[in-house]
Design a protein that fits this description.
It is globular and about 55 Å long. The longest helix has 14 residues. Helix 1 crosses helix 4, helix 2 packs antiparallel against helix 4 and helix 3 packs across helix 4. The chain has 327 residues and is α+β, with helices and mostly antiparallel strands. It is 17% helix and 29% strand. The protein is built from 5 helices and 15 strands. The strands form 4 sheets. The chain has a 5-stranded antiparallel beta sheet. A 4-stranded antiparallel beta sheet has the order 4-5-2-13, with no helix packed on it. The chain has a 4-stranded antiparallel beta sheet with strand order 11-10-9-12, with helices on one face.
Length: 327
């Protein structure tokens, strides 16, 4: 199946401002894209550098000029159309058997206060089987405990704060689950990217980027989602890290006022992809329930010079972001 992904972000920047962008597809997903992984920045920044950060994400540094700044992306991802694998039957590893690269995902981080919530985690889940069922118990508890609502969003909200007031947005669900699992000696890391209403009832709210997390079981990483609480279809990964601090979509080292935020994640037919690419229809892609593709709104005329930040899959080299509203 084919999924059209992209965004249109527009900022008002009073003065020349350095910015860090975490807006590319993750390097692991490049082979599944129909087009080059290209973020268009307009007007062209005076500095533009793309690199691989410490967590394996692709990031871009720019020096944004004063005035209006527009960041756009439009691509098509190829997906199997199958739900994600479940953790049922996966082995829970003792700490001494974990790969060294998993150890950072057992530690506290900005939004995941493992030390503060450790006793709580063992009180709640210490008597569950030391198997995948312990992970499932954490998922069940978080999903039932936290109430979702955009009005509950806060850039400073930690896992402990979410537990205290019982409300949050998708990132908060993931932070609580990650923190509890780390306290129980289960490696867990934060992830963000695209997740459309494919294979599920359509959500009437405007499309947004999504957060989920990954847990290390059975010698591999599994994708889990404490908010939606079920395997989903066609996630497109953008970035991973210890928590939301490491994968902020944009970081401005100065004032940058967000004026437009538009995201699309829609299943499209092979015929639509062929029209986009100006070629014969692609091999059949079956339609699945979900929202059909509709052209996103917004001013389409580009009257200022632009720069295309294109990924070269062969290039690899270092570090991500946390949102600063300004100084």
């Amino acid at each position: 199946m084919y999924v059209r992904i992209g965004f249109d972000l527009q900022y008002n920047i009073p003065a020349e401002t350095p910015m860090l962008l975490m807006l590319h597809a993750h390097p692991e997903r490049l082979a599944f894209l129909r087009r080059p992984d290209r973020v268009i920045v307009e007007p062209a920044p005076t500095m533009c550098e793309t690199f691989i950060d410490a967590f394996g994400n692709r990031a871009t540094r720019i020096l944004a000029p004063a005035g209006r700044l527009r960041l756009t992306y439009d691509n098509v991802a190829v997906d199997s159309g199958l739900p994600e694998p479940t953790i049922q039957g996966a082995r829970l590893h003792p700490v001494q058997d974990l790969p060294t690269e998993c150890l950072p995902y057992l530690m506290s981080s900005r939004y995941c206060e493992v030390d503060v919530m450790s006793q709580m985690a063992w009180d709640l889940f210490g008597k569950t089987p030391a198997t995948w069922e312990r992970v499932q118990a954490v998922m069940d508890w978080v999903h039932a405990r936290v109430q979702f609502g955009y009005q509950y969003a806060s850039p400073t909200k930690t896992a402990k704060m979410v537990c205290d007031d019982g409300t949050g947005v998708c990132r908060d669900f993931q932070h609580v689950a990650i923190t509890l699992l780390r306290a129980l000696n289960v490696p867990a890391r934060y992830a963000t990217g695209y997740l459309g209403d494919i294979g599920v009832p359509a959500n009437p709210s405007p499309m947004d980027f999504s957060a989920w997390f990954e847990v290390y079981l059975g010698s591999g990483w599994y994708t889990l989602d404490a908010r939606h609480h079920k395997p989903r279809i066609a996630r497109v990964l953008m970035a991973r890290g210890r928590d939301a601090t490491d994968v902020a979509l944009t970081t401005s080292f100065g004032v940058a006022v967000l004026e437009k935020f538009l995201v699309w994640t829609d299943e499209v037919s092979a015929e639509t992809v062929a029209q986009m690419e100006g070629q014969a229809p692609l091999p059949g892609s079956s339609r699945r329930s979900g929202q059909p593709y509709t052209t996103h709104t917004g001013e389409r005329q580009h009257r200022t010079p632009a720069v295309e930040v294109t990924v070269n899959p062969a290039v690899l080299p270092s570090r991500p972001s946390n949102v600063r509203a300004g100084v």
